[in-house]
Design brief:
Elements: E1 7-11, H1 16-27, E2 31-36, H2 42-51, E3 59-63, H3 72-75, E4 81-84, H4 98-117, E5 122-126, E6 142-143, H5 158-176, E7 183-188, E8 190-192, H6 201-212, E9 218-219, E10 222-227, H7 228-240, E11 247-251, E12 254-257, H8 258-268, E13 280-281, H9 283-290, H10 294-297, E14 308-309, H11 312-318, H12 325-338
Parallel strand pairs: 1-2, 1-4, 2-3, 4-5, 5-7, 6-14, 7-11, 8-10, 9-13
Antiparallel strand pairs: 10-12
Amino acid sequence: MFDQPDRVLVTGISGFLGGHVALQLLAQGYTVRGSVRSLERAEKVRKTLAAHGADTTRLEFVALDLLADAGWAEAMSGVRYLQHVASPFVLEMPKDRNDLIRPAVEGTRRAVTAAFTAGVERVVVTSSIAAIAYGHDDYSRTFTTADWTNTDSPKVSAYAESKLRAEREAWAVAQSFGARDRLATINPGAILGPLLDDDVGTSGLLVQRLLNGSIPAAPKMNFSIIDVRDVAAAQVAAMTSPSAGGKRHILADREMSLFELGTALRAALPEAAARVPRFEMPNWIVRLIGLFDPQIGSNTAELGHVRRVDGNSGRLLLARPTIPAPDAAVATARSLVARRLVA
């Protein structure tokens, strides 16, 4: 069983993106070995994927910790591809930036090192546009895969720094093995789309808050949005595409403001979106609220700015257009409503 050539290790399989990656891999006939922090979570993941039509007879689990060496070498046994999706994300930035940066960097180092040591054919690491487009004051430009976030800027969050340093670590490890062409990174924007279970997570929380009225007026914030199904498809494509190795791939459909998101939700779900804000909030009020609201407070540096990224690399990888950003937001909302996760 462990010497099959089509086995894929998916780290962070219990997460929003990791679950979608596993779902697409299973649908394409791969055997999936999912990593979880504790095997107690395995049965929930299995039931979730089965509920969405997956053949879970080809699903197995291992317990791995981003901050511990134990188990990584064994987890790579018989694995042909690695999908390293796991990475810490928090709503409230920690007092010590290293609480976020260390597990991201060390976890990536462990995963990529173990993979190349075991002779894994291709490693795909989930990075972010946070590793590309932040810490720069020129908002008139469009950021590409050639750009890197500037961590010398005091405006760069611990999350953005964690994604930058983790991705750089992945490339450094690949270089040390002479295997840059066997590594690909996926750099998505804000990931929305259908939930697989009742875990709203960080991705669904923003749409949930728009729907439940806890954001009375829309802060002037903009996000590069991509549907989770596109990100998962890109992760899988990067695993086998001969031309994907050695490259970064930006996944972003387009930028949308919170106000535009609200407008799209009202148009598609008028009853469920009755409490979505109909006005934009002055920046000074947002900054004041941000003192007490961690999710808003961690994003106030972005007020009024539109950060554009070039998503052509992702569309080339997918060989098709991306799902429109408003549709991704509406899919999130429909999931929340269907699962009764909107108060």
